[in-house]
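Chain A, query sequence.
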Amino acid sequence: MGHIYLVRHGQASFGSANYDQLSELGFEQSRLLGQWFANCRQTFQRVVTGGMERHRQTADTCLAQLPRTALADTDWLTDDGFAEFDHEEVIVRHCPEFADREAFQRLLAERGRDSSPNQVLQQLVRSAMQRWMSGWHDDDYTETWPAFRHRCVAALERLNDEPAPQEGQGRHSTIVFTSGGTIATLMQHILGLQDFQVLDMSWSLANCAVTKLQHRPGQINVSYLNNYAHLEWLGEAGAVTYR
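Chain A, predicted structure.
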């Protein structure tokens, strides 16, 4: 039996010119996660990143907290199958005027007068993802929802196809640094969720939260989902974020 730890990246730089960078808080969340793993004396035989800069920054910052001996025999690899879908394209296809970043920020500010900007953003992203997932507009997207789902599941199955450790060799642990949409989609596959449940779950996954899977070839089970106790335990007020 092996373990796969799915880690959502730390808080990214939403609203900036380059979203694909960790914020200052995102780096701190990554350090807190690494301290938690170090306190647990966790080791990993394989580290996988999803190909995005925020994934690699989270991995580097997190694992720098572990003793060198804990990663002495660790294999590092990049698998684009664990990359996030293009959320900017999904939003712009739903609301073309939001190709103008300033117009997008103005909308959040204006609608945020009556409700929080986070609620406005959630409603907007949910509507945009519903359009993407409906299948009625597939020609509008570089990557359709079925293609994204297949890509994510195929990446997980590549990990699961690795031979299980022999008796007496201990448990083989893999850590994957990825994104919320990817993790929610993998949970849909494992737990048999509906598309609307993917929408809800993707919004509830905290930055630097950990989802732990137990696996052997042909079988994957969820050990725990969206664990961010390390942020509550080691962090300060405001350490837990979702965007």
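The mean pLDDT is 90. Residues 23 and 166 are 41 Å apart (CA to CA).
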